[in-house]
Amino acid sequence: MIEDKVRLEFMGVQALLLRLPEEVPIETGEALDRLLSLRAALLRELEGVDGIEDITIGYRSVAVYARFEDVSPDDVLARARRAIQGSQGSPVPATRPEAVVTLPVVYGGSFGPDLDAVAERAGLSPQDVIRLHQEAVYRVAMIGFSPGFAYLIGLPEPLRVPRRETPRSRVERGSVGIAGFQTGVYSFATPGGWQIIGRTPVALFDVHRPSPSLLSPGDEVRFEAVTEEEYHGRFGAYT
């Protein structure tokens, strides 16, 4: 059983990490399914325990953040082991109804300066790149890099091109990028090396929302091509 190979290790004095073995693939969604089930089991085991601060999912791991001055590390470790056993054969938690998100995107031009390069590398027309990118249904594998930045799996095979050889010193907020088997949206203007094919007006992170991050692991995401006029018309509504 894969669950028997989950490795547990403390991250300094602030967290316990549960790591899946390398044999569990990320890009197919198998790792995500197992991690979602494991996180659900951890939430059950740790419910009501003082000192537990957060339980977060990575590409191949789940981290339990805790104040170990308020809860025994041995207690957290024992509960984590029970959660691992309890997650065996468990169904993947259902996606929240509100967590199927469609993001409008202006593809190409100044909004997607790498669209033509991606098309050339993939042996496709820019229109085919846009079509394939829109047709897929993606899943949020994890949040990282910057607040609200969602790593999305499910990118069609023909679009799986490598990062840029030279990263940009600034990638605008809302930029939609491709890197290997991943696609994602820059939640803030930051340096970045992903191939930028478009931009969305939707704010991926907003501290004024009850849940600042628009997306969470397990959520489904679709992209919808819009015109530049629609982008500017919707910008105020989305931010």
UniProtKB/TrEMBL annotation:
A Pfam family matched in the record: CT_C_D
Coiled coil regions in record: none
Keywords: ATP-binding, Hydrolase, Nucleotide-binding
Domain Carboxyltransferase: 6-215
InterPro entries according to UniProt: CT_C_D, Cyclophilin-like_dom_sf, PxpB
Any one GO molecular-function label of the UniProt entry: ATP binding
Record SMART domains: AHS1 (SM00796)
Keyword Nucleotide-binding: yes
Name of the protein in question: Allophanate hydrolase subunit 1
Organism listed in the record: Alicyclobacillus acidocaldarius subsp. acidocaldarius (strain ATCC 27009 / DSM 446 / BCRC 14685 / JCM 5260 / KCTC 1825 / NBRC 15652 / NCIMB 11725 / NRRL B-14509 / 104-IA) (Bacillus acidocaldarius)
Phylogenetic lineage: Bacteria, Bacillati, Bacillota, Bacilli, Bacillales
